[in-house]
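To: structure subgroup
Subject: Chain for Friday's discussion

All,

I'm putting the inputs and outputs inline so they're searchable in the archive.
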Amino acid sequence: MSERKGVETSFRRLKGWAGGLTDFVLALIPISGIVFMLHLSEFVKIPLFTQQYLGVVFGLVIAASFLLFPIRKGKALNRLPWYDFCFAILAIMSGLYVSVNYEILAVESGLITQERVLLGLIAVLLVLESSRRVVGLPFVIIMLPFLFYALFSSHFPGILGMRSIPFTSLVTFLYLDEQGIFGVPLNVSATIVLVFVLFGQVLSVIGGGKVFIDIAFSLMGRYRGGPAKVAVIASSLFGSISGSAVANVVTTGVFTIPLMKRSGYPPYFAGAVEAVASTGGQIMPPIMGAAAFLMATFLNIPYSEIAIAAIIPATLYYLAVFIQVDLRAAKLDLKGMPSEQIPNFWRVVLKGWTFVLPFLVLIGLLFFFGWEPESSGLITAGGSLALGLCFARHQGVTWTKALSVLRDTGRGLLEVGVTSAGAGIIIGVLSITGLGFIFSDMLVSLAGGNVFLLLLFAAIGASILGMGMTVTAAYLLMVVLIAPALVDSGIPGLIAHFFVFYYAILSFLTPPVCLAAYAAASLAGASMFKTALQSMKLGIAAYIIPFIFAYRPALLLQGSLFDIVEGAVSAIAGIYVISMGLEGYLFRSLSWPKRMIFFCGGGVMIIPGLIFDAVGIAIAIPLVVAEYVKRCSAAATT
């Protein structure tokens, strides 16, 4: 599922031979992944090396992007132009060349030939054009200056002046070197991400998405502002398997946004709740977005460590949303849903056990047995599909739907796959030119050794670079451009990566280009600008917490038990107080001066250190007591 607004409507819907060809190419993507990861080729005595597999995936992913996405909006979606068919053939040829000739290429890695230059040029141009169609023009605009620099770096002034890379060397390197297009990002996308996209598609087929929503209704529907709390719970759960903020919005928002509006929430608030809750699915363990798997690979640590470290920040994120939703419900005097509309929790779990069991197995394999993510996901995906076929026929699970999982998995991998190939171009240029080290030194010098200023540059850079792009693309850019500077300044790698990861995600909520907020506003029939501003308020924790865990690693479960407990408690209290200030309500509506006191008190409370905790409490608690006394006095007189 794509993260770009309206991308679902931009897919071609082809019939006849063109439709069959497209479905076949899409289905081959997960099939080739299953063959590679289960080592099935060894049964016929044909070894399949990683680069050979990546060549196959690259060709299929790029070919599918030309088969599915028209050259521009407004073009007919029911026919396949001849030039896109030719582009698809070229993509498959360029990928298969690497696969078929890998053993020769591994020996002659530095040899430049005419055919390799030609195929390299074709591969780079195809990646640029497929990125424009699938990811968006901003991503291409960022890639082009890197290519320009590599070719003409000798003409740049100062420390940027380097020896220019010959055109033939550049395209060959980007095409054939393991630090280019077929590098780490594409490798992770073609293995770990592919498996979890497959798992998500299987869960959707056997009714996993509906189970999530029903569980949320059963848990939160009866409380004040129930529909909004349902949106928070359902979107956080569903986001774990959808892997896309916008996909999450349009899937769960169809149900939750109308319910929120009918219960009394303003349309812009309903849209903002769905946008923020859906975006948070990217940071919610146990299954986070594709960028989290990339993070584990870059840091060379198990994915389970990434997911465990994300627990407290994700909890704070959703806590801020939940508190503001509850305070707004109290302010508007909203009630819960009628009991007849609320499903029984245990009935939901028993009916949806075919989904719940595989999910529990996945968590066990990842966190208790220490299995690799791709192995865990592949086994649970296969087990889920088997359970669905055997026990979930009442949900309409058939062999036809099961086979469609392969096609939809291929489609779901397109955006991440194309993004990873594009990121490979950027990483390749940084590698061959040394620009990454230069850029890191420039940032550190610009910040003048001030870590906070460097973090601020990173936050602004991630928000800007992420506008109009996927989380994966924004994260990859920040990892190669800014994360090294943070590490050079003494910030541990895990914290540096988490910092840029969070701000890459926040681009989906931050104006002027905030795709999750815009998608939710469209569903809610609300002002996009008001929805975006409210989304920033609801997601306040995500804007603050990265700066806090940069100084207080305990929030990422790094440190002693006392530090972790103290940091978590003070952060929770601080988020609660800040939320009261943002929403302007505690027992009754608050004036602006009182709201500012709460906001300042909560902000101080979150700053690392017991002294700041004490100062924050001293600021906020007297006002809480005063408001409580006034409430009791008002209740006594009525």
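Points worth raising on Friday:
The first strand starts at residue 585 and ends at 586.
DSSP finds 31 helices and two strands in the chain.

D.
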